[in-house]
Amino acid sequence: MTDARLILSTVDSQAAARTLATGLVEDRLAACVNIVPGVQSVYRWQGVMESAGEWLLLIKTTAAQVPPLLAALAERHPYEVPEGLVLAVSDGLPGYLAWLANSVGNAGGKSRE
Question: Which phi and psi (to 5°) does residue 12 adopt?
Answer without folding.
Answer: -95, 0
